[in-house]
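From the methods appendix. Each design record in this collection lists the tokenized structure first, followed by the designed amino acid sequence. Records were kept in a plain field format so they could be parsed without special tools. The example shown here is representative of the layout used throughout.

RECORD:
FOLD TOKENS (413 positions):
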């Protein structure tokens, strides 16, 4: 706090005293916002003789990004995002426009120039800049005659790392945001330039301040649901899928309904981010492939065994061939799903903690279910052989042998 206040005092004194021959009347007119909770200041000056807008922004660089925007809501609003440049020393300024309540997209039509004094110092974003065409854009405009022009602000999470010069960089969802109105005539004057920031609100009325609890809830539901399905439910389903138990109907129904919830949340949340809204990521592609294989497994489960012809070496029994086909497809689907879980964590830009938890759980389930599945497969084959032998004995007119073989077969279940 001491460093941030000192930087504000120094910047204010520099603006007040440069050049020394100018009077106090040459201080740029401005309206200024101060957010004590976030230790953030924003001041704006409107050039009455041109389309230029000057601003000064100071905010803790612990946030992955900081943004201010023109408008009451995200849809169609012009927003200016600030984050660390490559190496974490410079500042990247990215003007963006959002088509809705989703990640705003960089617009090259808006030109913003960083001025002297823009840097990262003492853990603070220090931004002095001028926007040459921020008055109007295709989806909105700034009313410089309004005494209550709507504005908004937002802060990115502090546990995410963003350090790049790429103006199109992917952004994490905000963790806090707010709305305020600004007196634009108060910020307009004949003498223009970067205005000094203040620790009080001047020409500003704060309408709303909110914290986002828990992050992206839709993404969390998708992630947790799919993780449980992949690590726990899918192996159980594939174990049941090779059996003749009636529980397969209940297992498949519950699994399918939960799976639908997971996929719907994933598709819905994908539309909120630039990195996923086009559905071209490897995580999304493998997810749909795994879904197609799963549906194939479920369809084959109810295909009569007699359709599996005796054309495979060592597979003279249709039930045995069907069981092997289902088991093979089930293992392939599960493997793809497990790998896709890691790709999903990468797409969500999560840290190594989530990778470690998911990886340990996945490895543990693989070590537990793989030998168990082969054991169940072996028992199913023994049961099938016993039934075939019983049928052959009964056909040969030996009921005692048929009953004995049938009892031995049941012991294998």
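DESIGN:
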């Amino acid at each position: 706090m001491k460093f941030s206040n000192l930087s504000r005092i120094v910047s204010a004194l520099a603006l007040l005293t440069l050049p020394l021959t100018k009077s106090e009347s040459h201080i740029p007119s401005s309206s200024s916002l101060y957010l004590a909770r976030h230790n953030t200041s924003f001041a704006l000056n409107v050039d009455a003789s041109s389309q230029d807008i000057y601003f000064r922004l100071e905010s803790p660089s612990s946030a992955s990004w900081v943004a201010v925007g023109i408008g009451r809501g995200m849809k169609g609003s012009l927003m200016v995002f600030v984050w660390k440049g490559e190496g974490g020393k410079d500042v990247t300024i990215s003007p963006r426009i959002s088509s809705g309540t989703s990640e705003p997209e960089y617009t090259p039509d808006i030109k913003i120039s960083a001025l002297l004094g823009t840097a990262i110092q003492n853990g603070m974003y220090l931004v002095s800049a001028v926007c040459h065409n921020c008055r109007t854009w295709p989806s909105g405009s700034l009313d410089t005659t309004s005494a209550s022009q709507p504005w908004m602000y937002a802060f990115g999470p502090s546990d995410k790392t963003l350090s790049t010069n790429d103006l199109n960089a992917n952004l994490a969802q905000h963790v806090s945001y707010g709305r305020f109105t600004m007196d634009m005539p108060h910020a307009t004057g004949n003498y223009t330039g970067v205005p000094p920031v203040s620790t009080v609100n001047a020409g500003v009325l704060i309408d709303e301040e909110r914290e986002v609890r828990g992050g992206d809830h839709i993404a969390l539901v998708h992630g947790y649901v799919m993780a449980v399905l992949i690590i726990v439910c899918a192996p159980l389903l594939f174990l049941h899928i090779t059996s003749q138990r009636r529980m397969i109907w209940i297992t498949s129904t519950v699994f399918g309904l939960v799976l639908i919830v997971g996929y719907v949340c994933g598709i819905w949340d994908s539309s909120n981010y630039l990195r996923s809204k086009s559905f071209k990521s490897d995580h999304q592609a493998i997810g749909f492939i795994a879904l197609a294989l799963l549906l194939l497994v479920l369809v084959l489960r109810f295909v009569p065994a007699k359709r599996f012809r005796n054309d495979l070496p060592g597979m003279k029994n249709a039930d045995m061939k069907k069981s092997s086909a289902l088991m093979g497809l089930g293992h392939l689907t599960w493997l793809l799903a497990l790998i896709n879980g890691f790709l999903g964590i990468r797409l969500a830009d999560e840290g190594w903690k989530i990778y470690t938890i998911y990886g340990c759980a996945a490895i543990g389930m693989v070590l537990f279910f793989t030998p168990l599945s082969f054991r169940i497969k072996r028992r199913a084959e023994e049961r099938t052989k016993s039934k075939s032998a019983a049928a052959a004995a009964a056909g040969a007119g030996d009921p005692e042998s048929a009953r004995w073989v049938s009892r031995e077969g049941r012991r294998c279940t």
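APPENDIX NOTE: Residues 12-24, 409-413 have pLDDT under 50 and may be disordered.
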